[in-house]
């Protein structure tokens, strides 16, 4: 009878120990206090005594568990084991989150259909392994070189459009928003006080790793929310990024391709949606190693695409059947660059839309941007960059060539300040470009010209008006000459005083791709000794001189020195140098001349 009572007490104790909200525990009775008293401790058999002691130990353990964990919920399956998401460690504060704590941060999987659509949108239906290797072996990392420490290093040829756009925003925070990335005072770090305003200095090596990381995280957050119409940001990460988070590129390259198909992408990709910038920043800070890993550039591109929405991306494009990564070399398309610069994956660089008639139109840049874009193709008359990209809020531009993206930036925002006549020129040019339906060809109809004249209050003499309209269309270059010769009181910008002056300023160019260092006999080493020349990103400082806005004839007559001045060294201008980058700069500042020290800046 006593054994039966003890069994019941033990079952009750074990049952209560597993309850979510247990009642007051019932303690099992000692044998000697049992009511029956039929079997005392002295007459207890060894087998019975052993069973009794075992039951009492188990009951005591159950009671102890109830006291220590009175509110413990019933055990549930650890969902972190179902999805191979890495444990995230915050090295800054020493907090390590286990998979169970990350239960709400595991992210979602793309459906099979979404993965197919995403993979096809980015790479197309047929993509080579070499292109996939370019896009899956490029992390987002800063240069270890002190001279280029604020720059992102590019090892592969394809993702330069992603890195250059991100680099432009990073520079915006490092140069113009040092307080936002944790600097105590703008006068400490890369900023100095000059003429009652803060102007950045070129002591780039003084920027701390913490400041660079904060600038990177803030840049990523800003771009993603811009892509999400400032309502949301989607962050995509890989389930196996912990295996390739090393900073050694050779180790990342040692393994096979992380993805070769849409099904591979669906297996390893996870994403989360954020509606506040604070939560997005925290997530980016906690998973920054994923973006520093071998798939970092691709993960950030996917994050931007998902933030915009795959359907919206396709609606932005003029030809949604083409892949965003162009064949056969895997270059980032203009749509990728525009997505990261303005939040829309439009394929063109002109302002607004271009109506082709019949309900068809081409899409351009719909708004002014934080950082801009210039391209060598404009100097070759292949396109026309609109004012939205050409005159961004901050003097930072992504530079596009035929096959590469680099970054141009100034440390002083005054390089974009315009005097009264320059503002007048911008006003007329914007009105003209708004009616230019030639795709940047630079001409409008007579009807559109009359609208421009009325909108900008230009009062041309009747004879001049008839001459310019005689051909049935108006070319910008011809109109510009007329405006230059028209007095200001008639709406022109003729400077009868000749006091407009010229601009002189410094500007910097950064090329993040590792290039052969031909200084110091690098080429000779490669040829004679078989050694590989040193490779590193390059930062070039250029001095830019922009002449007054005179007509070409006036400029040439004033630029030519007289015979008495030819022998004077004081009047000799700085040696003028040329490189393809100068042609890009001239699309922003016409007739600018540039000079630099050392090798010419490279945009390829």
From TrEMBL:
Superkingdom: Eukaryota
Region (Disordered): 1-54
Residue ranges constituting the Deubiquitinating enzyme MINDY-3/4 conserved domain according to the UniProt record: 119-478
Pfam families tied to this protein: MINDY-3_4_CD
InterPro entries, per database record: MINDY-3/4_CD, MINY3/4, UIM_dom
PROSITE patterns assigned: UIM
Similarity remark: Belongs to the MINDY deubiquitinase family. FAM188 subfamily.
Identification of the protein by name: Ubiquitin carboxyl-terminal hydrolase FAM188A-like
Record organism: Camelina sativa (False flax)
């Amino acid at each position: 009878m006593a054994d039966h009572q003890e069994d019941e007490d033990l079952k009750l104790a074990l049952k209560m120990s597993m309850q979510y909200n247990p009642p007051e525990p019932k303690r099992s009775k000692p044998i000697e206090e049992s009511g029956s008293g039929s079997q005392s401790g002295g007459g207890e058999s060894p087998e019975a005594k052993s069973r009794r002691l075992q039951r009492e130990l188990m009951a005591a353990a159950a009671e102890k568990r109830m006291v220590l964990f009175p509110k413990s919920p019933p055990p549930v399956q650890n969902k972190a084991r179902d999805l191979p998401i890495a444990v995230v460690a915050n090295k800054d504060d020493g907090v390590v989150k286990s998979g169970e704590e990350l239960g709400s941060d595991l992210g979602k999987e793309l459906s099979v259909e979404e993965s197919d659509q995403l993979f096809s949108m980015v790479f197309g239906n047929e993509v080579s392994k070499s292109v996939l290797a370019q896009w899956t072996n490029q992390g987002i990392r800063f240069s270890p070189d002190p001279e280029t420490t604020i720059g992102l290093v590019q090892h592969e040829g394809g993702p330069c459009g992603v890195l250059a756009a991100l680099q432009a925003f990073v520079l915006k925070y490092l140069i113009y928003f040092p307080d936002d990335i944790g600097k105590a005072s703008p006068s400490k770090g890369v900023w100095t006080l000059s003429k009652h305003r803060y102007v950045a200095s070129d002591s780039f090596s003084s920027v701390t790793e913490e400041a660079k990381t904060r600038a990177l995280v803030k840049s990523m957050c800003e771009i993603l929310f811009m892509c999400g119409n400032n309502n949301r940001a989607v962050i995509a990460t890989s389930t196996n990024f912990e295996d390739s988070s090393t900073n050694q590129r050779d180790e990342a390259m040692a393994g096979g391709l992380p993805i070769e198909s849409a099904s591979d992408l669906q297996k390893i990709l996870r994403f989360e949606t954020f509606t506040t910038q604070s939560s997005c920043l925290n997530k980016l800070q906690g998973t920054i190693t994923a973006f520093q890993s071998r798939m970092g550039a691709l993960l950030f591109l996917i994050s931007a695409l998902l933030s915009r929405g795959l359907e919206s991306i396709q609606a932005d494009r003029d030809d949604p059947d083409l892949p965003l990564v162009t064949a056969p070399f895997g270059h980032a398309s203009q749509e990728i660059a525009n997505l990261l610069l303005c939040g829309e994956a439009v394929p063109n660089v002109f302002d607004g839309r271009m109506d082709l008639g019949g309900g068809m139109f081409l899409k351009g840049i719909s708004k002014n941007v934080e950082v801009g874009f210039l391209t060598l193709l404009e100097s070759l008359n292949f396109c026309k960059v609109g004012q939205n990209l050409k005159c961004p809020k901050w003097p930072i531009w992504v530079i596009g060539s035929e096959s590469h993206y680099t970054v141009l930036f100034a440390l002083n925002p005054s390089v974009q300040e315009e005097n009264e006549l320059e503002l007048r020129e911008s006003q007329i040019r914007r009105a003209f470009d708004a009616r230019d339906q030639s795709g940047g060809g630079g001409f409008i109809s007579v009807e559109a010209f009359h609208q421009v004249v009325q909108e900008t209050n230009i009062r041309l003499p009747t004879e001049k008006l008839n001459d310019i309209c005689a051909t049935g269309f108006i070319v910008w270059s011809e109109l510009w000459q007329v405006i230059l010769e028209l007095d200001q009181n008639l709406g022109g910008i003729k400077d009868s005083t000749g006091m407009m002056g010229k601009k002189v300023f410094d500007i910097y160019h950064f090329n993040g791709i590792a290039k052969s260092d031909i200084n110091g006999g690098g080429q000779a080493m490669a040829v004679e000794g078989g050694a590989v020349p040193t490779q590193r990103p390059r930062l070039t400082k250029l001095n830019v001189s922009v002449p007054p806005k005179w007509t070409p004839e006036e400029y040439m007559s004033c630029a030519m020195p007289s015979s008495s001045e030819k022998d004077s060294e004081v009047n000799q201008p700085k040696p003028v140098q040329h490189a393809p980058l100068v042609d890009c700069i001239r699309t922003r500042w016409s007739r600018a001349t540039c000079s630099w020290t050392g090798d010419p800046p490279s945009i390829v």
